Amino acid sequence: MADPVPNRLCDVLLTASEAYPTLERAFLSAKTEVSAGFRVFDPDTALTSAEGFLVGKTWADLVAHVLDHGVRLTFILSDFDPVVRLDMHRYAWKCLHRLKKAAARSRHPELLTVRTSLHPSRVGILPRLVLWPRLHNEIRDSLAPINAQPIAARRAFMDETPLIPKLVKWRGDQLVPRLRPPALVPVTHHQKLAVFDRQRLYVGGLDLNDRRYDTPDHDRAAEQTWHDVQLMLDGPIVGEAQTHLDQFEAITHGKQPHNTSHLLRTMSAKRAVSAPYLSPKTILSELADAHRDQVTQATDLIYLETQFFRDRIFAEQLAKRAAQAPNLSLILVLPAAPEEAAFEDDPSSDVAFGEHLQVKSLEIIKSAFEDRLFVGTPAQPRAADPDGRATFMGAPIVYVHAKVSIFDDRAAIVSSANLNGRSFTWDTEAGALITNHLQVAHLHKRCFDHWQGDGTDPSFFHPVLARASWAERARQNAARPPEERRGFILPYSADPAIAAARMLPGVPDEMV
């Protein structure tokens, strides 16, 4: 449980249009060092701030500029399993090489330290043997577009993906899977944080690339929307975040974790004996523990916005508290569909299993809260032709990627962790618990104003009246043409998820 000592600075940054310029200015104002750990950090990303435009067009230009001024930069980029996330494995190494190329343009390339980090946990040999036929087919299918390219492109692919030579081999001029069960990495580093001169911390749910850019207006094609929340903090949490960045890789290999009072983490490590296991060994579940602790103290209103609501254990904790606190209500904001289902039309079993878990988790809280629950989903206030699950009630959806939890006006958590078992027990995650009343109220108002489009009606912020006000506004919006709606929120419908949901016996909930 985090110590309730408040941080002095707590800037709330909604969407990349607020977060990216702040991040650029933080890098440019650094005096001695910056340490950063991101799932995705692409130096080809366009700069967005006036200060950034003075040094170039992309983050590669900014990195070179900061190195020129003698600032030491350390980047730890997440690496990915090359079987199930080949695209991300290749992308991570491209980003690494782009950062090195940017440093080579500077006067001080030696001040850049950059590496990709692959979690050391591996799926045990017994599950791998069971999965072997499926994995062989996945590797073969992923090689098909590569083999369709010229031979030079195939060779470049092998050079760009360091883990691929362990999985594939040349047969003539074609790439084919090796005939052995591939190693599988079930875990990734999902954190998104940066520390500047050991004085300020940037933390939350937002990575860095052009795909993740959006504005609070969300007036883009549905597949280009990306709602996220970051914080810029100072105070005691900063030193803990720096230590975390210095040590988290060693902890995943078995080193004893250091204690924190302000930074919340999820961390796992490789198992000493992994043969029968799909899962890693959970080392820290501070984010899950903090959510549970705050739920047990909530009396009036819990507000959650999350990409995934799939943790049935957390849903049961909410349900238990609903029975204990008869005046407690819950507002939950979710995207209308997972990204893969909305924009990629991906019917894979993993996506379907995730839908199943969310359907079940929603059923748990609906049964417990009944009319004290409102589940909403955002869509743009403009009409769109039907486009599968990328449209909702006649409008383009707004994709929610934020990870915000507010408990009354007493405490809040902003982190990289979704409300699913993976984020609560497996992946490397980081976030902050805010307990300063004014800071919590500010975050509360920013989130509510953003979705509702105005802050004129006090009932939307009242701890007792908020749920009913949100539900009524959503009902009114659903009855109106998109152009006449107020704000973004509509009533969430689980029907598409129910239709797509699929149980996967034997697969742990934490997998998705």
Write the topology of this structure.
Layout: E1 10-14, H1 16-29, E2 33-38, H2 50-53, H3 59-68, E3 72-78, H4 86-104, E4 112-117, H5 125-147, H6 151-160, E5 168-171, E6 174-177, E7 192-196, E8 200-204, E9 229-233, H7 237-252, E10 263-269, E11 281-285, H8 286-297, E12 301-305, H9 312-324, E13 329-333, H10 339-343, H11 349-369, E14 373-378, E15 391-392, E16 395-396, E17 404-407, E18 411-415, H12 421-426, E19 429-434, H13 437-452, H14 466-479, E20 489-491, H15 495-500
Parallel strand pairs: 2-3, 3-4, 12-13, 13-14
Antiparallel strand pairs: 1-9, 2-7, 5-6, 7-8, 8-9, 10-11, 10-19, 12-17, 14-20, 15-16, 17-18, 18-19
Describe this structure in words.
The protein has helices at residues 16-29, 50-53, 59-68, 86-104, 125-147, 151-160, 237-252, 286-297, 312-324, 339-343, 349-369, 421-426, 437-452, 466-479, 495-500; strands at 10-14, 33-38, 72-78, 112-117, 168-171, 174-177, 192-196, 200-204, 229-233, 263-269, 281-285, 301-305, 329-333, 373-378, 391-392, 395-396, 404-407, 411-415, 429-434, 489-491. By secondary structure, it is α+β, with helices and mostly antiparallel strands. The chain folds into 3 domains: 16-120 and 186-211 and 233-239, Endonuclease, Chain A, CATH 3.30.870.10; 125-177, no CATH class; 259-511, Endonuclease Chain A (Endonuclease, Chain A, 2-Layer Sandwich), CATH 3.30.870.10. It has a 9-stranded mixed β-sheet with strand order 11-10-19-18-17-12-13-14-20, sandwiched between helices. A 7-stranded mixed β-sheet has the order 1-9-8-7-2-3-4, with helices on both faces. Strand 5 (168-171) and strand 6 (174-177) form a beta hairpin. Helix 3 packs across helix 4, helix 8 runs parallel beside helix 9 and helix 9 (312-324) packs parallel to helix 11 (349-369). The radius of gyration is 23 Å and the shape is globular.
